[in-house]
Amino acid sequence: MPADAEIVFADHVGRFYARQYGFPPMAGRLLGYLFVCEPAAQTIDELSDALLASRSAITGAVKMLESFNIVRRDRAAGERVDRVTIDPESRQPQNFDSAIHKEHAALFREGLALLSDSAPERRAPLEETIALAEFLGERLPELRDEWLVRRENLRRTGALPTATTTKGTR
Fold first, then answer.
1. Shortest CA distance to 62 belongs to which of 26, 114, 10?
2. Which among 2, 28, 89, 140 could bridge 17 via Cys, Cβ 3.0 to 4.6 Å?
3. Across all residues in the chain, what is the average pLDDT?
4. Terminal CA-CA length for the chain
5. pTM (global) more than 0.70
6. Contact 7, 51 (CB under 8 A)
7. Three-class SS string for 40-87?
8. d(CA 48, CA 56)
């Protein structure tokens, strides 16, 4: 059974992900628990027991987290059940895609065109949203490069372990 502190942490992660990203609380709880559970790979039944949740709630949360490439399921040869773990690839920089922000800016420029004859205060929210999206589109690739250099320095000094990114059978 998990320690009380592990469940409290899982609950905190669940609330954070629900509040910040609109995740169902169970998906956030599952994510939090997978970060601290031992062993790191858990079956649906083990996760259900640990989090006091139904198998269907856990399965739904796993599917959602899989769709975001945050967790993965693996099955060892000869086993009849999948084991769920944090996907090592999910710790790689993924949210630095400037194309999303460029698309966001283009989309809101379309809305701004509809307001071409409107007062500046009516256009202001769209103009600011476009400016922010353009800024993020420019800066995120630079931030990603800075992060990769910093991560490599942290790994070289031993302050950050080298991540394993080997994939098991799927």
1. 26
2. 28
3. 89
4. 27
5. yes
6. yes
7. CCECHHHHHHHHCCCHHHHHHHHHHHHHCCCEEEECCCCCCCCEEEEC
8. 9
